[in-house]
Amino acid sequence: MHIAIDGPAASGKTSLAKALARAFGCLYVETGRMYRAVALGLSRGIPLEEIDIDVTDNGRVCLNGEDVTDSLHTPELDTASSQIATRPEVRRRMVALQQQIARGRDVVMEGRDIGTVVLPNAEVKLFLEADPETRAERRSRQRGGGDRRQILASLLERDHRDRTRAVGPLNAASDARIIDTNEKGLSEVVLEATAWVKERLRKGDTPAH
Question: Does residue 209 belong to any structural domain of this protein?
C-alpha cells in the first residue's frame, strides 16, 4: 500500500504521515530529509550520480550506507536542500531513489510531488492546505518562537519556488483528497485522513502498481 501526502511547508504533512504510518503499519518516508541528505552529500564533494539514499525499516536515513539522520536538521542544510531541490537533475535523481524505496514496501511518503510524480499510482493521495499565516504560526511554535514576519516571508518564498519549479512543482493530484487544516487540530486531520484511507481500501477501486 502506498499513501502519498503532499502540501506546502508547515501544512501538517509530517505529523499526519507519522500517524498514518503507525496506524497502518507502513514505513514512513519524509522526502525532505532525503533532500537534506543529498545536500550533505554534495557538500562532502560526492558527485550527484554517486549519491545513494535509503530509508531503513525504522526510518533512519542513510547516505551511501552511512546513517546520517542525526546530522540532517541544521540551518545550513535547510537552506541548501531548499536550493538544490529546484535543480531538475537533483529532482530526477531523487524521484528515482524515492520510487526505489517504495518498491515492494508499504509506505506513507510525504513531500510536494509524491502524488503527482513519485507515486502517481498510489492507492491513497492526500493534499494538505493551510493559509500562509496559519502555517507561519505553526512553524513559529515548532521553533519555540521567532520573528513571525520573517517566518511568513520565508514560507511564501518557499511556496513560490515549490510551485514554479520546472520539475515536480507543488500541485494537488487530480485524484487527491484535499484536507484544509486551517481550523483543525491534528486529531481531526488524522481522523479524516484515516477514514479516507479505509474507504479507499474498502472500495477496492484503487489503481494497480
Answer: no
Q: What pLDDT, on a 0 to 100 scale, did the predictor assign at position 98?
A: 97
Is the separation of the CB atoms in 36 and 81 below 8 Å? yes
Reply yes or no on whether the pLDDT at 205 is more than 80.
Answer: no
Domain that holds residue 56: 31-104
* pLDDT of 2: 98
Q: Are residues 177 and 85 in the same domain?
A: no
Number of folded domains that form the chain:
2
Same domain, 124 and 197: yes
pLDDT digits (tens, 9 = 90+) for 146-172: 889 999 999 999 899 899 988 899 999
Rounded to 5 degrees, φ, ψ at 162 are -65, -40
What pLDDT shows up at residue 206?
Answer: 47
Residues 111, 183: one domain?
A: yes
